Q: What sequence folds into this?
């Protein structure tokens, strides 16, 4: 897909490129002589073609500026560079009373020095966070939409709380593991992996543990947090008994793709 686009762009290509933002084959635009006098190819018949809009738009790319001080000390997994848009696909979730009650309990029992923070965007990840070039966002989203549009809507049910660490071991998460709906999630991940591979991007975990992260802290605090799991899971079972059942499942009828500060809704069938 990406290579097919590159070839057609190369075919269309005829002018100056914004070289720091447009990837793929580079064509030198340096001039070694004055166009009007010495260049035999500078007459009206050799007028340069306009730059394809997909390239010229790349130079008009709005920058997604990041300020780490606004992110509670989170360490970036990859450096922020102009043209790199952190992107991932997920199932969104609106916090329910059952979940916020659980979080209140967790904050009471875990030590303050862990500085546990509540997640600000509840979701179930279906891809890792990958880096997309700005001009890949539209075709990538389009590709994902095409691939999942026939996928049937489905339910997922929450199970128990688990502790997760990110790959760099710079953050530790408390997440609600998913019980049923696992087969559908695996099939969705396969479709999404296929889209990611077309752009040479990393696929999801080989052995995914689907979960909804509800809280996190800086560093690898897996061992410490695991000691609190029995109490947290006990409380979670009680809340599941006392709160309406629908607070602990999700009807998945669409996914979201977040790329930088842009959001795209991807409908299921
Ligand atoms: P998320 O809230 O989806 O960003 O997930 C929190 C962290 O869980 C991510 O940084 C993942 O690296 C981590 N994680 C660790 N093991 C797994 C796994 N088997 N499946 C999914 N996520 C995992």
A:
């Amino acid at each position: 897909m990406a290579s097919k686009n590159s070839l057609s762009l190369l075919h269309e290509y005829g002018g100056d490129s914004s070289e720091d933002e447009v990837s793929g084959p580079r064509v030198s635009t340096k001039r070694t002589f004055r166009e009007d006098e010495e260049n035999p190819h500078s007459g009206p018949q050799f007028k340069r073609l306009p730059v394809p809009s997909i390239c010229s738009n790349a130079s008009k790319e709005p920058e997604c500026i990041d300020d780490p001080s606004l992110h509670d000390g989170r360490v970036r997994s990859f450096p922020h560079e102009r043209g790199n848009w952190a992107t991932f696909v997920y199932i969104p979730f609106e916090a329910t009373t059952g979940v916020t009650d659980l979080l209140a309990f967790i904050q009471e029992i875990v030590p303050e020095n862990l500085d546990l923070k509540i997640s600000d965007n509840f979701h179930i990840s279906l891809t890792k966070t990958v880096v997309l070039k700005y001009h890949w966002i539209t075709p990538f989203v389009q590709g994902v939409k095409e691939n999942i549009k026939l996928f049937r809507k489905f339910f997922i049910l929450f199970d128990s709380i688990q502790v997760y660490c990110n790959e760099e071991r710079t953050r530790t998460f408390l997440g609600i593991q998913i019980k049923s709906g696992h087969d559908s999630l695996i099939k969705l991940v396969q479709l999404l992996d296929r889209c990611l591979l077309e752009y040479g991007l990393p696929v999801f975990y080989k052995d995914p543990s689907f979960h909804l992260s509800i809280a996190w802290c800086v560093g690898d605090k897996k061992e410490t947090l695991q000691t609190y799991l029995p109490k947290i899971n006990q409380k979670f079972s009680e809340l599941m008994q006392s709160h309406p059942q629908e607070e602990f499942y999700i009807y998945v009828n669409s996914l979201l793709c977040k790329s930088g500060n842009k959001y795209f809704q991807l409908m299921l069938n």
Observations:
- The chain has a mean pLDDT of 80.
- The CA atoms of residues 106 and 112 lie 11 Å apart.
- The chain has two domains: 15-53, 68-267.
